[in-house]
Amino acid sequence: MMTASNAPVRQSSVRAHNLALVLQTVANSPDPISRASVAGATGLTRATVSALVDDLIAGALLAEVDPAPRSGAGRPAAGLRPAADGPAGLGLEINVDYRAACVVDLTGTVRHHLVEAGDQRGPGSLDGLTRLAARALRLARAEGLTVAGAALAVPGLVSAGGVVRVAPNLGWQDVAVGSQLHGLPLMVDNEANLAALSELGTGDLPPSFVYISGEIGIGAGIVLNGALYRGVRGWSGEIGHIPIDSAGPRCRCGARGCLEQYAGQEAMLSAAGVTSVESLAGADLTVAGTALGTAIATVVNLLDVDTVVLGGIYAPLLPGLHDAIDAEIARRVLTADWSPVRLRAATLGPDAAVRGAAGAVLRGVLDDPAAYLAR
Amino acid sequence: MMTASNAPVRQSSVRAHNLALVLQTVANSPDPISRASVAGATGLTRATVSALVDDLIAGALLAEVDPAPRSGAGRPAAGLRPAADGPAGLGLEINVDYRAACVVDLTGTVRHHLVEAGDQRGPGSLDGLTRLAARALRLARAEGLTVAGAALAVPGLVSAGGVVRVAPNLGWQDVAVGSQLHGLPLMVDNEANLAALSELGTGDLPPSFVYISGEIGIGAGIVLNGALYRGVRGWSGEIGHIPIDSAGPRCRCGARGCLEQYAGQEAMLSAAGVTSVESLAGADLTVAGTALGTAIATVVNLLDVDTVVLGGIYAPLLPGLHDAIDAEIARRVLTADWSPVRLRAATLGPDAAVRGAAGAVLRGVLDDPAAYLAR
DNA sequence: TCAAATAATTCAACCAATAAACAAATCAGA
DNA sequence: TCTGATTTGTTTATTGGTTGAATTATTTGA
């Protein structure tokens, strides 16, 4: 929980913080972990950890499992794991040609995943999404899961309060999605942001990185110190219109030579003379890679992140893009000599955004388990 | 204090947090403020605030002053103010043609300010800085101030542990400044970062903004949610090499068409055909302004900040730059229609970096007064 | 079979915030 | 000028939560 630094701290906040600390320590451990190990890892005493774990087990956030095989003398430890039958997150996504819902439990397991293909352009598609969400909810509840909340990924700019300012490819403008769905709290966020969170959740990324989502538009999700950076109004990461060449082709935004004109899906397809994203795999992607490398160099110079994750259509194309990107980074990133920029392909594929949406709900629980327990 | 979220919280942390909360509430209040008002503003009880204030007064962090003029019935309040005779910060700066030191107390008053003109290129200039710091220290201690630490502003890239990786205009490369000076903890940071903190301290800026420092090079200090964002390795804000035109003039960094080639001090002087920064005031700055606007648009699209502060040589030139910057922002910032980007000239002038350095030390005290009291 | 080792729980002590009562100092109205 | 209302600040008993030491539980190895 990003504790508001201008709020008073009382004893109950201490407990709330330490509950989160214990829960996250267990959640971040690859194997079942004992109370004593949690105490060692967190700096709390075993007595305190035991008391906190009691609460977490009573609230179905943690579960005891068979102890891991041990060596050496001593009483065997009871293993702790996030509970599979406790809270779950409902992730939703709406995109140009499909809508999707998924239910993920605290162990990270995708319990249900529903996808409906079809044109979603126009705000009417929200009704269909509501029905899809209801179906996913019924499936989750039938299994005894407590759905803690929902999050919706949208390819557009989202304001506070769940208003989609503009989603160009959906044809949305000032669509109020709201902050409730079937009685659950609903969070609406940009698809690149949620996909970035999703990749962060895989656990093999550093706490600060930038996720670049290549679709028809190009967006970025910025993760700093383990938390999504959303910007003052929630509109961070609009990377598609970084200028590459002020004399370049005119862009739909009105300026010239934006990144999107070189590395957007349409631009790459027409440059390669093909019509499907799959066919790009064999094409020469130097122009797109150079433009992307220029933009990445700008991002790295500005934010000093050392890892960039390429998602969306870029993930499968990374082998063809890699050299051109690297060359541009070497030329433009001032600090490349001291510490290299790592390029990675996203690992989650097209599901990243929905799963990230469900993950965002669960992250809320992990960040403030006391609030969940008190519900 | 940026509480490490993976650290346990104990009762003493509660006290540490609330001490900071009370101290900052008093420090942020324009007028002397009563214990009862602090209680109202923070949500703590009057009893708790009284106890915390006792500690802060005993530690010379707060002082009682004559009560502010009041209206209405009731016992008159005792006014609280940051103590003028408590901790002070020692700010240091080394730049191409001068070195400086200043001592600032908790009230924000600059108690001493020493400047020595002269060429500082080459690492030998550190000895002179050490002597200057000793002079400033003697002056501060003679007045009864407790110097809590020192911070040094350098125009270059600084690594953890006080190593200046490179400061091109000083001719420094891998200079280890260290983390101690005359027995005080010493923090070394980029000049733009500290200047940004300094502007933040003036109090009339929002919690998130970008400060752009125009000197021979161009740097940026990024403040997000009231805290400096330093990046993974401390090298954030290298804005000078944002590409403006890939076919533009070659830059000393090896790439082409970097911002510095259009809006750097040298570029502006030679474009205007003058030799002094003062003479630029009447010149046509459209080219520089357009380049700067392009770079600012990139920063805003990426970080979604709504305020940009122009410092260094840009501050006095803002009237001549404003229109060209605005035009470029309007064209390139996607969200400009919903919420304008505010451009401001820096208010502190050339002293911003030294004062920011002293301010950084004081900020450390404000953020964790318990550590200062326990010293 | 017993000692050593490790895990988890119990319990008294302690620390810090709270709530409520109390003391202090002023204003306002008769 | 007295008196009650009002607000500030302090005192005191209570509560919530962590700590540390002692205790219980369960295994390995000699």
For the record, the CATH architecture of the largest domain in chain A stands as 2-Layer Sandwich
Intertermini distance of chain A: 17 Å
Measured as a percent range, the helix fraction of chain A is 25-40%
| Strand portion of chain A | 15-25%
CATH H level, superfamily name of the largest domain in chain A: ATPase, nucleotide binding domain
Verbal overview:
The structure is a homodimer of 375-residue chains. Chain A is built from 11 helices and 16 strands. Chain A is an alpha/beta fold and 375 residues long. Chain A folds into 3 domains: 72 residues, Winged helix-like DNA-binding domain superfamily/Winged helix DNA-binding domain (Arc Repressor Mutant, subunit A, Orthogonal Bundle); 133 residues, ATPase, nucleotide binding domain (Nucleotidyltransferase, domain 5), CATH 3.30.420.40; 145 residues, ATPase, nucleotide binding domain (Nucleotidyltransferase, domain 5, 2-Layer Sandwich). A 6-stranded mixed beta sheet of chain A has the order 5-4-3-6-11-10. In chain A, strands 14-13-12-15-16 form a 5-stranded mixed beta sheet, sandwiched between helices. A 3-stranded antiparallel beta sheet of chain A has the order 7-8-9, with no helix packed on it. In chain A, helix 9 links the parallel strand 15 and strand 16. The first copy, chain A, is globular, with a radius of gyration of 22 Å. The relative contact order of chain A is 0.13. Chain A binds a DNA duplex (30 and 30 nucleotides) through helix 1 and helix 3.
Short structural description:
The structure is a homodimer of 375-residue chains. Chain A is an alpha/beta fold and 375 residues long. Helices cover 37% and strands 24% of the residues of chain A.
